Amino acid sequence: MNFPNELAVTWRQAASITASAGILLWTVLSGSAADAKPGIALKKVAEGFTSPTVLVPFGDKSGQLLIADQVGTIQILTKDGTLLEKPFLDLRSRLIKLNQGFDERGLLGLTLHPKFAQNGKLYVMYSAPLRPDRPKDWDHTMTLSEFKVSANDPMQADSASERVILQIDKPWFNHNGGCIEFGPEGYLYLSVGDGGNANDDGRGHTPELGNGQDVTTLLGKILRIDVDKGNSYTIPSDNPFAGGKGRPEIFAYGIRNSWRMSFDRGGSHELFAGEIGQTMFEEVNIIVKGGNYGWRIREGFHCFDPKNVKSPPADCPKIDAMGKPLIDPIFEYKNVNGFRNDPEALGISITGGYVYRGKALPQLEGRYVFGDWSRNFVVKGGMIYVATRPAPGSQKWSIEPLESATHPKGQLQAFVVSFGQDAEGELYVLTNESNGLVGKTGKVHKLVPQ
Ligand SMILES: [Ca+2]
Predict the structure, then answer these.
(1) Which one of 301, 394, 423, 448 has the fewest CB atoms closer than 10 angstroms to its CB?
(2) Residue 36 — very low, low, confident or very high, per pLDDT cuts 50/70/90?
(3) What crossing angle do the helices spanning 19-36 and 3-14 adopt, rounded to 10°?
């Protein structure tokens, strides 16, 4: 076993010997480093969904998972990999009638109470029919509700236990956000899209300002509420507008459509939000209390003109109407719709993911795994990417396709709808193979060592 010593000698001499020997040495070292890490593969663990939107651990550390389908059902995937046919909870009759074609409405959010083991409470966010006495030309009402597990059967939610917590009327069918996550302090965070249509403009959008910059509406925001107190909820006393000047539920604003946000379960528990852009740039934000993320003054790192979306102005305000700075994303990438045939255009609609904190894939530790729904609206061309924090001395996150043995270059022959994380911190990719809510092509894939 003298190879390591030979290598050490070679290394010391490398600088003074020929370039070809240096290349050989580099090959040996990088080869051995690569061999030390497992490769990555995507392993299909469940199928038969229409459009799987959320995957969460079923609370009891038994290895069971809950998987929500956009069409309104939640099913249990058992530890041995069986998808139980009878829904854990069936919300289909409470949803607005969904389009068979493309639709952003449906069952969009699911999370368990941090004390689920004791209180059996879970929360869902879904698109209900428009409430009475709302403008007739508005579209639907986003509904956040609490349910409880059945007293008789721990494998069933009690469908009669619904407690409506918060309802938000939506002028359009699109840009719903709809993610719900408990923060490390036990408050519930909700992502709410800007109302829909396009450019934060038109029916139901605040004239001149847009909803993202209007702190008197809940649209275009990240909200934070305390669901453990009050009749429906209370406002955490340190919310930015708890004392007035804006809706007290607001935690952060200037949001267009944060589709999939998640707290880093390690590090400093930062809240990552994949922010779907309009036409030119997709972005990821780390959401902080009171932050203004710029929409519709900015898109990604660029100024934005709602009347001329493909020509970012050279200049725009750097602060909002209250004097607060507009916060840039941590990274952006070009949207294929704005940059056709540009190799740096990575997709058309970001799907936010998770910071990897599992054990099986150490090469992903602390890196943000996310995706893009597709490179093309019609053809299923979803992507998985991984973003790495800036190296010391740099401000720039790097993005690369997530290479896997099963899906080279991060390319899936599917639409990447969502991501999930289990109790061990392992990650899942949720896909379907139709751009509409038809069929049963929805699948769940786990990132595993190969
Ligand atoms: Ca932004």
Answers:
(1) 394
(2) low
(3) 130
How many angstroms does the Cα of residue 296 sit away from the middle of ligand 1?
A: 8
Kindly give the distance from the C-alpha atom of residue 447 to the centroid of ligand 1, in angstroms, as a whole number.
Answer: 29
Q: What is the dihedral of CA 126, 130, 132, 134, to 10 degrees?
A: 120
CA 252 / ligand 1 centre spacing (Å):
11
pLDDT of 20 reads: 40
Q: How confident is residue 62, by pLDDT bands cut at 50, 70 and 90? A: confident
89 Cα–ligand 1 center, Å: 35
What DSSP state is assigned to residue 314?
S
What CATH number does the domain located at 50-360 have? 2.120.10.30
DSSP 109-146: EEEE-TTHHHH-EEEEEEEEEPPTTS-TT--EEEEEEE
* Gap between the Cα atoms of 372 and 348, Å rounded: 7
Give the separation between CA 198 and CA 278, rounded to whole angstroms.
Answer: 7
**What's the CA-to-centroid distance between 219 and ligand 1, angstroms?**
15
The model's pTM: 0.91
**283 C-alpha to ligand 1 centroid (Å):** 7
Q: In this predicted structure, what is the pLDDT of residue 59?
A: 84
Domain definitions of the chain by residue range: 50-360
Residue (of 431, 449, 435) closest to 46 by Cα position: 431
The phi, psi pair for 283, rounded to 5°, reads -145, 165
